[in-house]
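Email to the structure team, subject: DNA repair ATPase model.

Hi all, the expression group asked for a predicted structure before they design truncation constructs. Nothing fancy, just the tokens so they can compare against earlier work. One-line instruction: predict DNA repair ATPase, return tokens.
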Amino acid sequence: MQITTIKIYGFGKFHDTTIDLSNRFSLLYGENEAGKSTLVAFITSMLFGFATAKHRYAMYQPKQGSQYGGELTFSHAQNDYWLKRVDGTHGGAVTLRNLTTDTALSKDDLTQLLQPLNQELFHQIFCFGERELQAVFDLNRFDLVKRIQRIGAIGSENWIGLTQELTASAGELYKPRGRVQPLVRLLKQYDELSEKLDTAKMQFQQYQTLQTDAAETTQELTAVQQQLANLTDQLNQYQRLIKLYPQYQQLKTEASTSETTPITTKDWQEATRLSTAVKQLKRDLTTQEQAIKQQQQHVASEAQQFYNAHQQQIDQLAGQISAVKQLQQRQQQNETQLANVKQELEKLNQHYGTSLTNLKVLTPSEQQQIKALFEQQQHLSIERDSRADQRQEHQKTFEKLRQQADADTSSGMAPKWLIAGVGIVLVALFALSGLLRTVGGMIGMLVAGYGIFKPIISGNQQSAIDSQMALLSSQLDQDRQQLADLDQQLIDADAEVTKFGAQHRLQGFAPERWLDLQGDLSLYQAASTQQIQLQEQQNQLSQKIQTYLAQWQFAGDVISLGGSTEHQLQQISQFLSERQDESQRLHWANEALTTSTQRQTALQQQYQLQQGALTQLLSQYHLASFAEFEQRYQQDQTTAQRNQRLGVLNAQLTQTDRQILADSGSQEALEKTSQQLQTQQLAKKQRQSELLKQSSQQQYQLQHLASSDKYQNLLQQQADLQAEITSLTDDWLTKKLLINWIDQTLINASQGRQPQIIKVAEQFFNELTGNRYRQIIFTDQTVQVVRKDGLTFDVGELSSGTAEQLYVALRFAFTKVMADVIAMPIIVDDAFVNFDRQRTQAAVKMLKGLAQTSQVIYLTANHDNLTLADEDEVYDLDAGKSV
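Reply from the structure team: attached below.
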């Protein structure tokens, strides 16, 4: 598998990020916190599923609110795939598509594609990081040898961790040279207590004799128990061989070879892929044929058939409908304008209380003429009023003079003036004195003199009044004549105005409104003219629309023409729209039919190609069908499993077992020997029982003799210590046996892959050490390397740096061997941070060599490492782009 593109919607610190991994070797650079470990988690999560809420820190929820998930584009087994995984249940919602065959796949197909890997195995085999190498750096030499010996076992990291925990736990119970461990302290107390007990026992003579007898009994009992144990082992061995004898016979008689060539797993996978592709192509062809049948059912309607028959004529008319609709819109607009004009004309008629239809607008000269007449009337009227006022003033003056003349003529001396003068003189004489009396007397005399001489003075004034009255009389006659002339002029002017109004039909209006009427009359005539023009346009538009509709009468039955003009145009538009839609649908249907036919041809070609490849592969094994191929493969697998079981049986039989089986010759002989051993075992058990009974009696007698309180207390303390020591010893032995079992199991698991791993590791180790070492040797106890000059070194004799290089070489050799079986990308997450420059260069060179067969993704925070890769192989995580 090779990942070609990574697209992250949102995962941890990443959002809307695309990374191109089209090269077999890719170096992804980023400072600390740039997201290298997050990127590794994204790749594994996309392949095997997102972490659940139970492990929320491993979920890497987006930090900027983007959609959780992303896409992977990868190639696998000569097919290109597109994988999308977003937030959802059970590890996320998966969308998988085979881009090569353009086939949609399910989440189960992805699981099948990745088998037998799961997320844990993928990390253990194909992911190598700083933490793992740092853990190796921290190991002592003994633990490093154990780690290297077990490198071929999948999951060995967990088991080695368990053995370390068990070793530490066992060391807390007992160490051979320890002092503070519980079992060490109890054993020391037991030795001290045994010495005290021996001292107490020696105090009795009879006890000593019994002790001697008891020792002999114990010695004989020990010998019998040893013999019984040997007999038991022999009996167990024979019983085990009796059970294995049928398989042993099968091992001897059955041959693991076959006359036919066994089917390889690679060919079986290829045949399975081809068979699956052929079946899928058959289903696709069936689906395509059904789709073609459905698409062929698309038939034009009767209206569409009529349209197709008259398409040229209809398309020509359809090209005019836009213009006709514009005519209709203009017609509607004209109707609106006509209504407005009529309303305006009616408003003017109502305003003047009569129709203005027969009136004409006065010309400028006529308006000037009537204005002059109006001004003349106004001038004459003003002048007449002025003359009338003047005559009235003259008349008033005349009347006043006449009254004055009448008064002066009828009176003589003025007694009033005379009496007043006399009175003033009397007042001055009697009431005043001095100058005032003189002045008052003079005034009185003057007033009295005026009264006496007033008639003489009045006679003179009368002459003047008569003269004035004669003059005013003449003036009044002139005023009368002027008024008569002005009245005549006013009559003549009114006649001219009346004549002008009659000539212009303005009799129905007050003359003072004639000039004001001209503006509204101009509007009225303009509106009337506009009304006539609009009506003519309406007639023309209606004629054009009717002419256009008449051209559609040949399709009247199909379109259902009838009703108003607007309705008919709507029917025509709807007909054209329906025909256009149906034509488009038929066009799409024809295109879909063409595409489906082409797709069917392509599928048939793919089917023939895949079927031919499958037939050719089956012919290599002289088989006619995939069912026979599958059956043959299962038979080959059964044979391989049987051979494997026989190999396991062969590994279970020791050289002694083989010798016994060869000497016995038959299962009956084994059973006869087993019966003899059972007889001997029974006899030994009876003797053991007798000796145990005898020993018990002797021990009882010894205990009876040692009946002192001190001795009994010592015995009780010894029993308590024995119980406690036994419990701790069982716990310690359990841990040690489990450690030995795990170590042996890991060694056995590694040995199956060691030849391949060692061969690849020798090449890697040679490159990492600058060609200083040429061979790696595994033994039961240690790992050895052979230097270029032929000297052999145990791992414990190597420097720490060289031992670490050996581990790296073996670790990547194991990954390469597994990658040859399960093709997956190899991810190295800053694993060489503690390497010097020379070792890092050698390690990157090794990774590039490894990239020839497997994709390698190397993540690093060391900027100097950028010089170790080509520019097109480097991607800068901080900058978000290729360097």
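Confidence is low (pLDDT under 50) at residues 149-156, 748-752. The chain has 24 helices and 15 strands. Ping us if the truncation boundaries need rechecking.
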